[in-house]
Every structure is written in C-alpha cells, then in structure tokens.
Amino acid sequence: MKKTVYIILCVLGALIPTAVFVPFALENGLDMGLFVREMFATQVASFLSADLIVSSLALWAFIYFELRKRTIRYWWLAIIANLGVGLSLGLPLFLLLREISKEPEKRKRHVKRTKE
To answer: DSSP class of residue 71?
Structure first.
C-alpha cells in the first residue's frame, strides 16, 4: 500500500511541475538567470522558493542519516530527481526506495516468526 502511494506521488510530482515548467522553457529557453530571478520576483515566490530550498536540504540530511542505518539501493536517484525536477519527485522517490530496501528485512522477520 505504501509503495503504491509513493509511486502515485512520484508520478504527480514529476508531471505537475513539468507541466508548469515546459511553457516557461518553450517561451524563454533554458535561461537559468531568468528562472532564478522569477523564483524571487515577489515576496510570495521568494517565500515558496526559500521553503523548497530548505526542504530540499532537509531531504538531503534525511537521506544521509537513513543511509547510515541501512543500505538503500539507487538512493542517488532521489538527489538527481530533487535537483532535476524538484522536491515533489525527490522526496516520494526516496521514500519509495527506502520502502523497497525494507522488504528483505520484512521477509527475514516473517520467516523467523514462522519457524518459531
């Protein structure tokens, strides 16, 4: 169930921001200077941009501390997704990868219980 929710959030987290970014890119090209200026053009945009930047740093810290507890294959994809699309994809992708990494652990516990 968790994995399904995370997959749906990954799809939404990729499609919605991309649908907003594509018209900008088509009109302006990949003008990163303009993109950053527009990110901070108003107080509301500045608030949202600052919130996303800090939230992204929180995700990176979360990833770091989770990796110290367990091996999570392909964790770096969440960082790439965060930088390439945004937190809306990076966070659910990491949560999905983390959930997948727990599966062998769950199987071991299940086998151990059935043997007892």
So the answer is: -
* Residue pointed to by tokens 């302006």: 28
pLDDT digits (tens, 9 = 90+) for 77-105: 999 999 999 999 999 999 999 999 998 76
Q: Structural domain of residue 109, as residue ranges?
A: 2-115
Q: Rounded distance, CA 74 to CA 92, Å?
A: 14
Number of domains in the chain: 1
Q: Which residue has the tokens 């992204």?
A: 56
pTM, two decimal places = 0.86
> If DSSP codes are grouped into helix, strand and coil, which group holds residue 72?
coil
CA distance 95 to 13: 13
Residue with tokens 């921001």: 17
